[in-house]
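pls read this stuff:
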Amino acid sequence: MFLQEDTDSHSNLFETRTLLESGIARLAALRRTEEDLEAIGRYAREIRETSDLEKVIQADIHFHDSVLKAAKNPALTSFITLVQELMKHGIRKTRKILFTEQGENEISANYHIKIYHAIRDQDPDAAYHAMYEHLEYTANKSIAIQNRQKNGL
């Protein structure tokens, strides 16, 4: 269902990701190690500094995987593993849509840096809200672009 290209499926996947990943970011802020923080920061910087679409996609996937690892919850990790391919597909699809718009990679990079800072500062509420804002913005923007492209505008 989620691999379909329609807007409703895309929206449903983002809704699911927003619910899950905001909580994951909260846990990561509370439980992260310096090693976790280094990985999260490295991928956030790669997103900001890379202009190659495939490299940005890989950095984005690794960023979200690193936040999950930092949450230190084996049950959650096992659960996410079941839906990870859907999440990777969602990231890949969204990046391809957003990459067509001037300035969108910079906006996305800024969200990733904001999430990184909240986790670095061990602020679970800020981490939750930063991830929530990132995914909400990305969902709304990518769906708007997708609809505009579909309608030939």
Remarks:
- The mean pLDDT is 89.
